[in-house]
Amino acid sequence: MTAAGSGSLDELLAELEGIAEERRLPVVSNLLPGADADQLTQARDLVNGDLPDDVERLYLWHRGVEGYRNDASFFPGFFGGPGLPYVGITELAESLKVLGRLLAGPSYGVEHFQSGDIPLFESQFELIVFRVSTGQVHVFDMEEPGSLVLPSLSDLLRLVVRLWRTDAFWVDRDEDISFLESTHALVGPEIQHYRARS
Predict the structure, then answer these.
(1) Predicted confidence band at 193 (pLDDT cuts at 50, 70, 90)?
(2) Among 24, 28, 142, 154, which is least packed, fewest CB within 10 Å?
Protein backbone atom coordinates (compact mmCIF):
# COMPACT_ATOMS: atom_id res chain seq x y z
CA MET A 1 0.00 0.00 0.00
CA THR A 2 1.28 3.48 -0.90
CA ALA A 3 1.87 5.80 2.05
CA ALA A 4 -0.33 8.88 2.24
CA GLY A 5 1.06 11.71 0.18
CA SER A 6 3.88 9.65 -1.36
CA GLY A 7 2.63 9.23 -4.94
CA SER A 8 3.05 10.98 -8.26
CA LEU A 9 1.51 14.38 -9.00
CA ASP A 10 -1.63 12.79 -10.48
CA GLU A 11 -1.95 10.46 -7.46
CA LEU A 12 -1.49 13.39 -5.07
CA LEU A 13 -4.18 15.40 -6.84
CA ALA A 14 -6.55 12.44 -6.59
CA GLU A 15 -5.69 11.99 -2.90
CA LEU A 16 -6.25 15.68 -2.21
CA GLU A 17 -9.63 15.56 -3.92
CA GLY A 18 -10.48 12.46 -1.87
CA ILE A 19 -9.61 14.33 1.33
CA ALA A 20 -11.80 17.24 0.22
CA GLU A 21 -14.68 14.82 -0.30
CA GLU A 22 -14.09 13.15 3.08
CA ARG A 23 -14.00 16.51 4.85
CA ARG A 24 -16.95 17.82 2.83
CA LEU A 25 -15.06 20.93 1.78
CA PRO A 26 -17.20 23.39 -0.22
CA VAL A 27 -14.68 23.30 -3.07
CA VAL A 28 -15.78 19.76 -4.06
CA SER A 29 -19.22 20.75 -5.32
CA ASN A 30 -17.81 23.65 -7.35
CA LEU A 31 -14.94 21.95 -9.19
CA LEU A 32 -15.01 22.42 -12.95
CA PRO A 33 -14.00 19.60 -15.33
CA GLY A 34 -10.47 19.37 -16.66
CA ALA A 35 -9.32 21.77 -19.35
CA ASP A 36 -9.76 20.98 -23.03
CA ALA A 37 -7.30 21.81 -25.81
CA ASP A 38 -8.76 25.29 -26.44
CA GLN A 39 -8.59 26.20 -22.75
CA LEU A 40 -4.97 25.03 -22.51
CA THR A 41 -4.17 27.21 -25.53
CA GLN A 42 -5.83 30.14 -23.76
CA ALA A 43 -3.67 29.51 -20.68
CA ARG A 44 -0.52 29.36 -22.82
CA ASP A 45 -1.44 32.71 -24.36
CA LEU A 46 -1.94 34.23 -20.91
CA VAL A 47 1.50 33.15 -19.71
CA ASN A 48 3.16 33.96 -23.06
CA GLY A 49 4.68 30.56 -23.60
CA ASP A 50 4.41 26.84 -23.06
CA LEU A 51 2.76 25.55 -19.93
CA PRO A 52 5.08 23.57 -17.68
CA ASP A 53 4.06 19.92 -17.55
CA ASP A 54 3.04 20.07 -13.87
CA VAL A 55 0.83 23.11 -14.42
CA GLU A 56 -0.80 21.53 -17.47
CA ARG A 57 -1.54 18.38 -15.46
CA LEU A 58 -3.09 20.57 -12.75
CA TYR A 59 -5.40 22.18 -15.33
CA LEU A 60 -6.21 18.79 -16.88
CA TRP A 61 -7.27 17.63 -13.40
CA HIS A 62 -9.68 20.57 -12.91
CA ARG A 63 -9.56 23.79 -14.87
CA GLY A 64 -10.84 25.82 -11.95
CA VAL A 65 -13.55 26.34 -9.36
CA GLU A 66 -16.94 27.92 -9.94
CA GLY A 67 -18.54 30.20 -7.40
CA TYR A 68 -17.41 32.08 -4.31
CA ARG A 69 -13.62 32.34 -4.23
CA ASN A 70 -13.16 31.64 -0.52
CA ASP A 71 -14.92 28.30 -1.06
CA ALA A 72 -12.28 27.28 -3.61
CA SER A 73 -9.59 26.06 -1.20
CA PHE A 74 -8.05 22.63 -0.67
CA PHE A 75 -5.85 23.93 2.14
CA PRO A 76 -6.54 23.33 5.87
CA GLY A 77 -7.09 26.97 6.78
CA PHE A 78 -6.21 28.44 10.16
CA PHE A 79 -9.11 27.47 12.47
CA GLY A 80 -11.45 26.79 9.58
CA GLY A 81 -10.51 29.91 7.63
CA PRO A 82 -10.73 30.11 3.86
CA GLY A 83 -7.24 28.77 3.24
CA LEU A 84 -5.84 29.36 -0.23
CA PRO A 85 -8.25 29.32 -3.19
CA TYR A 86 -7.17 27.44 -6.31
CA VAL A 87 -6.26 29.63 -9.28
CA GLY A 88 -7.29 27.58 -12.30
CA ILE A 89 -7.57 28.75 -15.88
CA THR A 90 -10.85 30.44 -14.96
CA GLU A 91 -9.05 32.79 -12.54
CA LEU A 92 -5.65 32.96 -14.24
CA ALA A 93 -6.12 36.23 -16.14
CA GLU A 94 -7.25 38.17 -13.05
CA SER A 95 -4.54 36.64 -10.86
CA LEU A 96 -1.85 37.60 -13.38
CA LYS A 97 -3.12 41.18 -13.22
CA VAL A 98 -2.71 41.13 -9.43
CA LEU A 99 0.80 39.71 -9.79
CA GLY A 100 1.58 42.41 -12.36
CA ARG A 101 0.53 45.11 -9.90
CA LEU A 102 2.76 43.59 -7.23
CA LEU A 103 5.68 43.63 -9.64
CA ALA A 104 4.99 47.25 -10.58
CA GLY A 105 4.68 48.74 -7.11
CA PRO A 106 6.34 48.71 -3.70
CA SER A 107 5.47 45.55 -1.78
CA TYR A 108 7.06 43.20 0.70
CA GLY A 109 9.15 40.65 -1.09
CA VAL A 110 8.37 42.18 -4.48
CA GLU A 111 11.98 41.64 -5.53
CA HIS A 112 11.36 37.92 -5.19
CA PHE A 113 8.55 37.78 -7.74
CA GLN A 114 9.39 37.10 -11.36
CA SER A 115 7.33 38.04 -14.40
CA GLY A 116 7.26 34.39 -15.53
CA ASP A 117 5.68 33.12 -12.29
CA ILE A 118 2.34 31.31 -12.74
CA PRO A 119 -0.08 31.77 -9.81
CA LEU A 120 -1.49 28.48 -8.49
CA PHE A 121 -3.20 29.41 -5.20
CA GLU A 122 -4.00 32.87 -3.90
CA SER A 123 -5.63 34.51 -0.90
CA GLN A 124 -5.71 38.00 0.53
CA PHE A 125 -2.52 37.26 2.45
CA GLU A 126 -0.62 34.63 0.49
CA LEU A 127 0.29 33.78 -3.08
CA ILE A 128 1.69 30.46 -4.27
CA VAL A 129 3.35 30.51 -7.69
CA PHE A 130 5.02 28.06 -10.02
CA ARG A 131 8.40 29.42 -11.12
CA VAL A 132 8.79 28.44 -14.76
CA SER A 133 12.55 29.03 -14.82
CA THR A 134 13.26 26.48 -12.07
CA GLY A 135 10.17 24.29 -11.72
CA GLN A 136 10.03 25.26 -8.05
CA VAL A 137 6.99 26.44 -6.10
CA HIS A 138 7.27 29.67 -4.09
CA VAL A 139 4.94 30.65 -1.24
CA PHE A 140 4.82 34.42 -0.64
CA ASP A 141 3.28 36.26 2.30
CA MET A 142 1.76 39.51 1.03
CA GLU A 143 2.79 41.37 4.19
CA GLU A 144 6.20 39.92 4.98
CA PRO A 145 9.43 39.66 3.01
CA GLY A 146 10.83 36.38 1.74
CA SER A 147 9.24 33.16 0.63
CA LEU A 148 9.07 29.46 1.31
CA VAL A 149 10.56 27.51 -1.61
CA LEU A 150 9.46 23.96 -2.38
CA PRO A 151 11.24 21.84 -5.01
CA SER A 152 8.09 21.04 -7.00
CA LEU A 153 4.30 21.14 -7.16
CA SER A 154 4.28 17.53 -5.93
CA ASP A 155 6.19 18.61 -2.81
CA LEU A 156 3.60 21.32 -2.11
CA LEU A 157 0.71 18.86 -2.48
CA ARG A 158 2.55 16.29 -0.34
CA LEU A 159 2.81 18.91 2.43
CA VAL A 160 -0.88 19.79 2.18
CA VAL A 161 -1.90 16.11 2.32
CA ARG A 162 0.29 15.59 5.40
CA LEU A 163 -1.32 18.59 7.11
CA TRP A 164 -4.80 17.16 6.53
CA ARG A 165 -3.75 13.66 7.64
CA THR A 166 -2.25 14.99 10.89
CA ASP A 167 -5.00 17.58 11.57
CA ALA A 168 -2.44 20.39 11.41
CA PHE A 169 -3.02 23.92 10.15
CA TRP A 170 -1.65 25.82 7.17
CA VAL A 171 -0.18 28.94 8.83
CA ASP A 172 3.08 30.81 8.48
CA ARG A 173 2.69 33.88 10.66
CA ASP A 174 4.59 33.93 13.94
CA GLU A 175 1.62 35.44 15.77
CA ASP A 176 -0.70 32.68 14.54
CA ILE A 177 1.77 29.97 15.55
CA SER A 178 2.24 31.62 18.96
CA PHE A 179 -1.52 31.71 19.45
CA LEU A 180 -1.84 28.03 18.54
CA GLU A 181 0.96 27.15 20.93
CA SER A 182 -0.50 29.28 23.75
CA THR A 183 -3.87 27.52 23.45
CA HIS A 184 -2.14 24.12 23.43
CA ALA A 185 -3.58 23.34 20.01
CA LEU A 186 -1.89 20.67 17.93
CA VAL A 187 0.84 22.14 15.77
CA GLY A 188 2.38 19.54 13.51
CA PRO A 189 6.10 19.38 12.66
CA GLU A 190 5.27 20.50 9.11
CA ILE A 191 4.07 23.82 10.50
CA GLN A 192 7.30 24.30 12.39
CA HIS A 193 9.20 23.63 9.17
CA TYR A 194 6.95 26.02 7.27
CA ARG A 195 7.67 28.69 9.84
CA ALA A 196 11.30 28.87 8.71
CA ARG A 197 11.37 31.11 5.66
CA SER A 198 14.25 30.92 3.20
Answers:
(1) very low
(2) 24
